[in-house]
Design brief:
The protein is 44% helix and 14% strand. It is an alpha/beta fold.
């Protein structure tokens, strides 16, 4: 059975990876990179391509195969699930705990809840905040992600964005 896991992955963190590891035993995964059109903001600092690379490198290192699909937003919730379906290879189920995602996909696909892992610690917002403040964030993301963020000078970008500077 093939299942979709959709997230913004700003950045990919160990909570995401725990969900992926648990799902991969039961499903062939399609990983949707949500809000693909957004980047260079404090809430969405990384591009879809950068997030793709974070996911790809991490999954490759762990020997996990998955389809990775960037998915731009549409501003009409009533058509969002159909939009996502049109962009992805066929899938049978959606893995999510997001109430809106569950509501929008339920009429179209089987929706399965996922267990959350230390949600307050493993959250993109918390990780980005730690990056800005110079606190430990590396322990919350896979090594491939922290290395890639270093390569693209992601910390500098996030700190510029936090100060309101132009890049």
């Amino acid at each position: 059975m093939r299942a979709l896991l959709i997230g913004r992955f700003q950045p990919l963190h160990l909570g995401h990876m725990e969900v992926i590891r648990r799902a991969i035993g039961d499903y062939e995964l399609v990983i949707g990179i949500g809000s693909a059109q957004k980047s260079h903001t404090i809430d969405n600092p990384f591009t879809a391509g950068e997030r793709y690379e974070m996911i790809y490198r991490t999954l490759k290192k762990e020997g996990i195969g998955a389809h990775i699909i960037p998915i731009a937003d549409v501003d009409y919730n009533s058509v969002w699930a159909s939009h996502v379906i049109s962009l992805c290879p066929p899938f049978d189920a959606v893995l999510s705990n997001n109430p809106l995602t569950i509501e929008l996909f339920s009429p179209l696909k089987k929706v399965l809840g996922t267990e959350m892992f230390s949600r307050t610690e493993y959250s993109g917002k918390e990780i980005r905040s730690r990056m800005i403040e110079g606190e430990d964030w590396r322990s919350l993301v896979p090594r491939e992600v922290s290395g890639y963020i270093d390569e693209i000078r992601g910390i500098e970008r996030i700190r510029y964005l936090a100060r309101g500077d132009e890049l």
